[in-house]
Amino acid sequence: MNSKRSKFTSALFVLPYFIMFMAFLAIPLIYGLYISFHNWDLLSSSHPFIGLKNYIDIFTPSSYKNSLFFDGLWNTLQFVLYSVPLLVFIGLGLALLVNSLPAKIRGLFRTLYFIPYSISVSVIAIIWLWLLDTNSGLINNYLLQMGLDPIPWLTKMPFAWISIVAATVWWTIGFNMIIFINALNEVPEDLYEAGALDGASAWQKFVHITLPTIRPIMLFVVITSTIASFNIYGQPYLMTGGGPGDSTEVLLMGIVQEAFEQRRLGSASAMAIVMALIMVVISIVQFRISNPKKKGGES
Question: For every one of its 299 residues, what pLDDT tens digit does the chain have, with 9 covering 90 and above?
């Protein structure tokens, strides 16, 4: 009787998550996959089945969907390559810095660095537009006062990418910092004491004790940062509009355009499914690289 009651209680705790998972992830994913096999116009009541045609068009060089998808994918990959290393290493550096502060002010700095993460992307874009606008931005006004030429932060390359990456790092770095702080707090103190007895320097302790101990958390941060960067949309949409030209028009912008401006929900769903598969493959590769198999088949 107690066993059944315990299982029932456990099920009740899991039920809210299960409902949310089904409502916001599983069902939309299955429905999106279903839509991707149809010619689905938002203004039409008829949605004929076309099989894999939407997927074939993505990989057909003569199709506009091919250029829309792969140009957007290339811009997205650029952002991932620019942002993820900064999000990981700056996050770790801030965690080490905050952890080294006196206990009385440590909580204050953790809060200050985390506050931007709680702000919506639209507010972040407004803040950075105010700072970086070519004609009236605060930074360019300071440059003019110093007798320097204004910098086209949002209208020319590579400044557009620099601006988007800087805004993203400032916005989201607090989350990674908190994750790393929790990981650093879990490193056993006796390991550092043993290292000190062996005459290890601070750098040697970091390389041979800290990094190996927090490696699983490091992998988690790398994968989650990559997934988050792959899903970039708000920053380029609000800050540069995909410009200059279409050099910052990321894949999600193309998918939204295909779905709601061209009203081709079937091909947009196919693009989203392919994008999701690419993200899964990249995550698996990152996991394999970070966890190479040892000799004898052990992992």
Answer: 566 777 777 778 888 888 999 999 899 999 999 999 999 998 888 899 999 999 999 999 989 999 999 999 999 999 999 999 999 999 999 999 999 899 889 889 999 999 999 999 999 999 999 999 988 899 999 999 999 999 999 999 999 999 999 999 999 999 999 999 999 999 888 888 888 888 888 889 899 999 999 999 999 999 999 999 999 999 999 999 999 999 999 999 999 999 999 999 999 999 999 999 999 999 999 888 877 665 444 44
Closest CA to 220 of 187, 184, 183, 185: 183
- In a domain, residue 296? The reply is no
Which domain does 158 fall in, by range?
25-291
Which tokens sit at 88? 């990981």
Distance CA 43, CA 35 (A): 14
Prediction pTM value: 0.89
Q: Is residue 257 part of a domain?
A: yes
Number of domains in the chain: 1
Kindly state whether residue 16 falls inside one of the protein's structural domains: no
- Specify the DSSP class assigned to residue 213: H
**Mutual angle of helices 64-99 and 103-114, in 10-degree steps:** 170
* d(C-alpha 47, C-alpha 266), whole Å: 9
Structural contact between residues 180 and 95, judged by C-beta atoms closer than 8 angstroms: yes
Contact 117, 172 (CB under 8 A): yes
* CA angle, 103 then 106 then 110, to 5°: 155
Task: Let me know if residue 71 belongs to a domain.
Answer: yes
Query: DSSP secondary-structure letter at 262?
Result: S
Query: Residue 191's domain is classified under what CATH number?
Result: 1.10.3720.10
